[in-house]
Amino acid sequence: MYIMQFIKTKFILPHFLFWIGVWFFFVYFFCYNSNNTTYVLWFSSFLLPVTMVITYFVVYFLIPRYLITKRYKLFALFSIYTLVFSTYLIVLAIIGSFVFLSNLKVTNMPPMSRNFVFVLILVYLFVAIVSFVSLLNHNFKTISRNRALENKILEAQLQIKQQELQYLKSQIQPHFLFNTLNTIYGLALKQSKDTPGIILKLSNLLDYILYQVNKPKVSLKDEVSHIKEYIALEKIRFQESLIVSFTFDYDSDKIQIAPMLLIPFVENSFKHGGLIDGAIKVKIVMVLIEGELKFSIKNTALNNRQRKHIGGIGLENIKKRLNLLYNDNFLLRIENEDNWFSVNLTISNLLTK
Of the residues 58, 85, 114, which one is the last residue of a structural domain? Predict the structure, then answer.
């Protein structure tokens, strides 16, 4: 099978040119201190196929079958067999040349061709060179395949994340719209004069949802603006029964975050907030300092009522989106005590995102 890989290879010409070069090197090497050109040419021609057989056996059989597969004991054993067999072939080449080319006179043999050790080292020099190049080529192909596989895995993971994000966003939008439309429906039943105003504010939020939410990032300033729109919308709905405090401070208008990331927290506080002393109280604080965003929101809650609703679509989706988008760069803490339900979110390294 390994020999067939060589036969099928598209690089026959480079192999041919390489061995022609090796033959010329043999001729040059064995001509040292010798004028018997005929002997050198024939001896080099005898030695070349021996070198080729040993080289291809090592490169296309021993290395791929035993060395690369880490069967080192078998590799060492067969390497010894190969050395013994190659020694036999080299001795045959030397004796045959002595018998047929030198007229059985040692003095007619080029000095370098008489020394078996030199000839053996010369042959295995080329075996080692070709084997080294073969291993380098194998390692390069392995690294290339691994990188290609890693890239495919990363692309697949990215597609999965993008699909999941799109799915989460598609859930947030109808959830958000459903709550807002319920508000409009209630006002319409009462024939409230605030209905046109709330519809106008909803249209602004729809613009944000339909055209901005599909972007990977929006400016924090835009997110704050639409949180204010949403608060205003809910104030119309709850009238005097809602008391909201929203303070924000950021040192840069260039920071961007994922769209619709914070509004669901605000929505949740209104939806599940509890009336205490006749009003739902919501306190929102947002601070951005040197790329670290600290967002906290707390609302009045009756006992553990809001804790029971924490598994709703909105908060669960935000948790998943945070994991997908910010991974280890966020900290989300949710608490419920003393009739206050609070969410504290910190996102760091926003300057590098």
Answer: 114
CA dist 195 and 183 (Å) reads 9
Instruction: Provide the domain limits for residue 8.
Output: 2-114
Q: Are residues 163 and 252 in the same domain?
A: yes
Question: If DSSP codes are grouped into helix, strand and coil, which group holds residue 254?
Answer: coil
Tokens of 156: 């697949």
Residue 351, C-beta contacts closer than 8 angstroms, at least 6 positions apart: 255, 290, 291
Residues present in the chain in total: 353
Cα–Cα dist 96/98, whole Å: 5
> How many separate domains does the chain show?
2
Rounded to 10 degrees, the C-alpha dihedral 310/312/316/317 comes to -150
What are the Cα distances from residue 283, in Å, to 182, 208, 269, 338?
24, 23, 9, 15
The answer as to whether 286 is a domain residue is yes
Q: 187 with 93, same domain? A: no
Q: Please check whether residue 122 lies inside any domain of the structure.
A: no
User: Does pTM surpass 0.70?
Assistant: no
The predicted-structure confidence for 158-217, as pLDDT tens digits, reads as follows: 665 665 556 545 555 565 567 677 777 777 787 777 778 778 777 777 777 666 666 778
